[in-house]
Design brief:
The protein has 545 residues and is an alpha/beta fold. The chain is built from 22 helices and 13 strands. The strands form 3 sheets. A 6-stranded mixed β-sheet has the order 1-2-13-12-10-11, with helices on both faces. Strands 6-5-7-8-9 form a 5-stranded parallel β-sheet, with helices on both faces. The chain is globular, with a radius of gyration of 25 Å. Bound molecules: 6-O-phosphono-beta-D-fructofuranose. The site of 6-O-phosphono-beta-D-fructofuranose (F6P) has 14 residues, from loops.
Length: 545
């Protein structure tokens, strides 16, 4: 087992102290002044690489801040941690596992060793099996029990076994086979299953049951319901299951127990975290929708960002800088949240996906040595696609009392050229970061003839920080780069905070308690021994269910 390296306490490090002192100088400054003082600010505080422009000049920092943040990253061993991750060391120490989502997109022929075994050939074996299965389904050669071709794919999974494939399917819908209906059932609430299947035909529906563990309550409940739905629709013949169910899991025994032939199972490995898994076989629904070639293009995008992260000095490193900027706000300005605002409707599930990726990874209060931290860790992540958010909650970002750093993500070309829609969208994209940074002074407002009593209400203080990430066009390749950018951003932050970004013990307690409560709901003779509040709520439910 790899234990954590000897680590100096974060807030006692000289690099941390230097940032604290520096913060005292930066905090009173306004972006308006910073831009006026430094005509080169916009060109100096940006990174352009991999066909991505990341402009971080509208953040409350200077070139000196970047130097100090990079010094902190180096002192925290970011370079060594990156090498440890990429070389298959067991950096997930609480589960004694390697963390190798980067191996999922390693090109054929590369080699990454885990426990003395090269994992890259196995990755490509599974990708090859996924490709040939996807081609069969797409070509109509994979027949259902009654001999009809499949026209509907239902992914059953939750968390990483749902959010990733769903987000990516939505993101890449433009490239998908429109003859296929693709649905995602995740919630154990029957409403989800019923609504997603109500217009589907059991004869032509394929269920992909995705679960790393194959024991997750919600997924197993939905999978059993799907099994009943299929058998009912196909006359009860058990042999139908083999044509209508495939599984994606690391747990072959449980897959067998469920009744899915392991010939119809696509595996992955314990060194892939659930939330980092949609580019493994967990992305099978996506591959069927967009085809294996496009899936490969996406993997190539991921890999490009992996190589950039591994090799580029931190001050020019997109994920490292995005992560360090987050540290600056989270730990020095005391910002509690970060808003991720994609200006593309196809990215409507991106922020939900990033919520799990970030909050399940870095939502930790204990460091790698088991000590309770005395500094803030992972932020609250939220947001939805622009411009909708502008007409909902941007008011608070512009004029509220909270500091909310925002990431604006946009594309130069729209995928559906329709009149001037894309220019309208992007005009808003640019306008918002400008307004947030520079605001409008009370003098400017008064000069417009606004009545004096309204002036304070219509003044924009500005100085609200944003990072703008622009790419040319939303493609499988650019999506891969974008997701890897955020994966490694989260890793950078976890490294600085000296936490394990790859376990998720915090989800366990609620799961255990739910198991205990299940029988108590339907059987009133079960004695309730919870706290007064929980007992009362369960009793109310029992009386009214
Ligand atoms: O409960 C949290 C979690 O374990 C996530 O980490 C994971 O993505 C999700 O549940 C689903 O797990 P599985 O793929 O094993 O069903």
């Amino acid at each position: 087992m790899t234990t954590s390296t000897k680590h100096q306490h974060l807030t006692k490090m000289p690099q941390w102290k230097a940032l604290q002192d520096h913060f005292e100088q930066i905090e009173p400054q306004h972006l308006r002044q910073m831009f006026a003082d430094d005509p080169d600010r916009a060109t100096n505080l940006r990174i352009e690489d991999l066909d991505i422009l990341m402009d971080f000049s509208k953040n409350r920092l200077t070139g000196r801040t970047v130097e100090l943040l990079v010094e902190l990253a180096e002192a925290c061993g970011l370079r060594e941690r990156i090498d440890a991750m990429f070389s298959g060391q067991k950096i997930n120490i609480t589960e004694d596992r390697a963390v190798l989502h980067v191996a999922l997109r390693a090109p054929r022929g590369e080699s990454i060793m885990v426990d003395g075994k090269d994992v890259v050939p196995e990755v490509h074996d599974v990708l090859d099996r996924m490709s040939s299965f996807s081609e069969k389904v797409r070509a109509g050669d994979w027949k259902g029990h009654t001999g009809k071709a499949i026209d509907s794919i239902v992914n059953i999974g939750i968390g990483g076994s749902d959010l990733g494939p769903e987000m990516a399917y939505e993101a890449l819908k433009f490239y998908s086979d429109r003859n296929l209906k693709v649905r995602f059932v995740s919630n154990v609430d029957a409403n989800d299953f019923v609504e997603k299947t109500r217009d589907l035909d059991p004869e032509t529906t394929l269920f992909i049951v995705c679960s790393k563990t194959f024991t997750t309550l919600e997924t197993m409940a939905n999978a059993h319901t799907a099994r009943d739905w299929t058998l009912k629709g196909l006359g009860g013949d058990e042999t139908a299951i083999a044509r209508h169910f495939v599984a994606v899991s690391t747990n072959a025994d449980e897959v067998k127990k469920f009744g899915i032939d392991t010939d119809n199972m696509f595996g992955f490995w314990d060194w892939v975290g659930g939330r980092y898994s949609y580019d493994s076989a967990i992305g099978l629904s996506l591959m069927i929708a967009i085809g294996p070639d496009r899936f490969q293009e996406m993997l190539a995008g991921f890999h490009e960002m992996d190589e950039h992260f591994r090799k580029t000095p931190f001050e020019r490193n997109l994920p490292a800088m995005l992560g360090l900027i987050g540290i600056w706000y989270n730990n020095f300005f005391g910002a509690e949240t970060v808003s991720i605002l994609p200006y593309d409707q196809y990215l409507n599930r991106l922020t939900a996906y990033f919520q799990q990726l970030d909050m399940e990874s870095d939502g930790k209060h204990v460091d790698l040595d088991g000590n309770i931290v005395d500094y803030q860790t992972g932020p609250i992540v939220w947001g939805q696609p622009g411009t909708n958010g502008q007409h909902a909650y941007y008011q608070l970002i512009h004029q509220g009392t909270k500091l909310i750093p925002c990431d604006f993500i946009g594309f130069c070309k729209g995928l559906n050229p329709l009149g001037n829609h894309h220019d309208l969208l992007m005009a808003n994209f640019f306008a918002q970061t400008e307004a947030l940074a520079f605001g409008k002074t009370s003098e400017e407002v008064a000069a417009e003839g606004v009545p004096a009593f309204q002036v304070p209400h219509r003044t924009f203080t500005g100085n609200h920080p944003t990072t703008t990430i622009m790419m040319k066009e939303l493609t499988p390749h650019t999506l891969g780069k974008l997701i890897a950018l955020y994966e490694h951003k989260i890793f950078t932050q976890g490294t600085i905070w000296h936490i394990n970004s790859f376990d998720q013990w915090g989800v366990e307690l609620g799961k255990k308690l739910a198991q205990k409560i299940i029988p108590q709901l339907s059987d009133s003779s079960e004695v309730l021994e919870h706290d007064g509040s929980t007992n009362q709520l369960i009793e109310y439910y029992r009386d009214n269910r």
